[in-house]
C-alpha cells in the first residue's frame, strides 16, 4: 500500500516513526474500509482506497492550514516587535 506510506513520509520525521505511522494508518483504513464496504455493499478494495485518498487529502489540507496559521502568527509577532 503506497498511500499510508505517502502520508507518513509527508508528515512524520524519522524512519521508525514513518513506518509505525504508515502501519497504523493502513490498519485503520483496512478495518474501516472493510466494515464500510460490508455495510454499503461496495467492493472492499475500492472502499479502502477511497478512504486512504480521503485521509491523504485531509492531511494535505490540514498541513496547509497549519503552515498558513504559523505564518500569520510569525508575521504578527514581527509587526508587534517593531
Describe the protein's topology.
Blueprint (H helix, E strand, L loop, with lengths): L2 H9 L3 H26 L3 H38 L1
Helix pairs in contact: 1-2, 1-3, 2-3
Word description of this protein:
With 82 residues, the chain is mostly helical. The protein has helices spanning 3-11, 15-40, 44-81. The longest helix has 38 residues, at 44-81. It starts with a helix and ends with a helix.
Kindly state the percentage of residues in helix: over 70%
Radius of gyration, in angstroms, nearest whole number:
17 Å
Mean of all residue-level pLDDT scores: 91
Q: How many beta strands in the DSSP annotation?
A: 0
Order of SSEs, N→C?
HHH
Quickly count the helices.
Answer: 3
Instruction: List low-confidence stretches.
Output: none
SS-derived structural category: mainly alpha
Shape: elongated
> What is the terminal-to-terminal distance?
50 Å
Largest sheet, if any? none
Oligomer: single chain
Percent in strands: under 5%
